[in-house]
Amino acid sequence: MSQTELFASPPVPPTPDRQAGLDRLKAFTPMMGRRYAAQRNFDFGPEDRSNISVLSAHVRHRLVLEPELAQAALKAHGLQTAEKFIQEVCWRTYWKGWLELRPSRWSEYKAELSQALHTLGEDEALRRRYHAARNGLTGLECFDAWVGELMQTGYLHNHARMWFASIWIYTLELPWVLGADLFLRHLIDGDPASNTLSWRWVGGLQTAGKTYLARASNIEKYTGGRFTPDAGALAHDAPPLDPALQHPAPQTLAAGEAPDPDAPALVWLHEEDLHAESWAADRLDVRAVVRQAQPLARGELELGECAARFTQQALIDGAKRAGAHFGLTAQAAAHIEDVIDMARSAGAKQILMQRPAVGPGQDQMAAYRAALAQADLTLCEMRRSWDAAFHPYATKGFFKFKSAIPTVFDQLRLN
Ligand SMILES: Cc1cc2nc3c(=O)[nH]c(=O)nc-3n(C[C@H](O)[C@H](O)[C@H](O)COP(=O)(O)OP(=O)(O)OC[C@H]3O[C@@H](n4cnc5c(N)ncnc54)[C@H](O)[C@@H]3O)c2cc1C
């Protein structure tokens, strides 16, 4: 019996709301054990995603939560059998924690990207090569197909992302930041930590001495023969982009803030956390619910259509649920001044939000904090217990991080 007959393939792109995420979680749970470990590396193509969850965009926007994935896997299979699936969920947490501890890597990425975009304007040969890659006109069948899939669905299988990034850097010899930018703007799960640090990992900028080389035989095997690239057309070598790699020392993590139980509050939903029902704000005096009006930009160039659509609908879904939860009608705010006006007219004295992660969300808050303070509104940036418990372990490599999983699960009472 084929994989597809055993487990249904989800629609890609998936429906951007919590209910669709929960439905997919339920349908995929039986797959989270040994089958996932054995099959996850196969990219059967956009029509057959039965071997992976395709929940990353839901998790990215916290329409569905990491502990919900972990709990489903643990309950159905136990920690040992579901180890691989749980570790993959924790890779996301690891990357996020790693970047929280070293935010300068995000600032460097933005500066390097700005420089690369400037160079594109001046260097016609580079510009031509970039546009051929970006438009899927390289002549490399697999690569061109992945570009098409990315543009049409906003999603690529993990293995395809690794091959894509490797070919971009080592075969097409394009600047890694331009490829990372293309992914970040077009992926429906586009995430500053997972994306930037995975690209860095492929190019030997994350783990000293480690790079990823896309091989023709590996592509053929793991695409089930859908692609049979000519080995001579791919790079044979993947030297690290920075052979003298050194990371900045981890900085102190920002602690989450507890809301003032006596102060009237405004709940502010943004695209990084759209499940206000689990913010533990039930006993507070919530007077207004406000959502970010539009998806945030993820770079200097335009946000991809699939990513913009997914995020916009996810924001609407999150706001609708939050409104129902607090018995209020959620309003959309395009500017910080709108949030301030809404807080004032509702009589709110504190603004509750989940602390945005390092990336566009945190960049925006850096600009907003002063305006809120000036308006005499207290900003309460909460942190989820999942992040607070896991992030301190992201100081070194994933090996150390993953060995902490049982301890953290105990702490979070997930066993
Ligand atoms: C170059 C490159 C760029 C990437 N950019 C992103 C990105 O912008 N956003 C993003 O969410 N993931 C990114 N990934 C990680 C990974 O490819 C996706 O999370 C995964 O393919 C999502 O598919 P899925 O939900 O079916 O995963 P599953 O295999 O079903 O895994 C379950 C969950 O675990 C997490 N996960 C799985 N694999 C990884 C991984 N390698 N790293 C981090 N988290 C993982 C995801 O949240 C996922 O939903 C990138 C990987 C590479 C190599």
What key phrases describe this protein's structure?
five-stranded parallel sheet; Rossmann fold; binds flavin-adenine dinucleotide; DNA Cyclobutane Dipyrimidine Photolyase, subunit A, domain 3; 3 domains; 415 residues; 19 helices; alpha/beta; Serine Threonine Protein Phosphatase 5, Tetratricopeptide repeat
Unreliable sequence segments: none
Helix vs. strand class: alpha/beta
Strand content: 5-15%
CATH architecture of the largest domain, by name, is Orthogonal Bundle
Whole-number mean pLDDT: 96
Bound ligands: flavin-adenine dinucleotide
Radius of gyration (CA) equals 22 Å
Overall outline: globular
Strand order in the largest sheet? 3-2-1-4-5
Count of all domains: 3
Largest sheet: 5 strands, parallel
For this structure, the CATH topology of the largest domain is DNA Cyclobutane Dipyrimidine Photolyase, subunit A, domain 3
Number of separate helices: 19
In CATH terms, the superfamily of the largest domain is DNA Cyclobutane Dipyrimidine Photolyase, subunit A, domain 3
CATH class of the largest domain: Mainly Alpha
Care to describe what's here?
This protein has 415 residues and is of the alpha/beta class. The protein has 19 helices and five strands. The protein folds into three domains: 3-101 and 391-411, Serine Threonine Protein Phosphatase 5, Tetratricopeptide repeat; 106-233, DNA Cyclobutane Dipyrimidine Photolyase, subunit A, domain 3 (Orthogonal Bundle), CATH 1.10.579; 265-382, Rossmann fold (3-Layer(aba) Sandwich). Helices cover 52% and strands 6% of the residues. The protein has a five-stranded parallel β-sheet, with helices on both faces. β2 (286-292), α14 (305-326) and β3 form a beta-alpha-beta unit. α5 crosses α6 (83-101) and α6 (83-101) packs across α12 (192-202). It is globular. The structure holds flavin-adenine dinucleotide. Residues 40, 52-56, 59-60, 88-89, 91-92, 95, 157-158, 161-162, 165, 183, 187, 189-191, 194-195, 198-199, 202 line the site of flavin-adenine dinucleotide (FAD). Flavin-adenine dinucleotide binds at residues 40, 52-56, 59-60, 88-89, 91-92, 95, 157-158, 161-162, 165, 183, 187, 189-191, 194-195, 198-199, 202.
